[in-house]
Specification:
The protein is mainly β. It is about 10% helix and about 15% strand. The protein has one helix and two strands, in the order ββα. Pfam families: PLD_C.
């Protein structure tokens, strides 16, 4: 399964236009930052 992301020539990663969220659950493809410790999110 391929993720709907775009990697630019400069290395920046972003969601493909029109595919910012997963269609089945609605979560953001790129995600977001948080303040949780790394050992909880890896």
């Amino acid at each position: 399964m391929r993720y709907p992301v775009h990697v630019g020539a400069d290395g920046r990663v972003g969601a493909l236009r029109g595919h910012e969220t997963f269609p089945d659950v609605g979560g953001r493809v790129i995600g977001s930052t948080n303040n949780l410790p790394d050992y909880l999110t890896m």
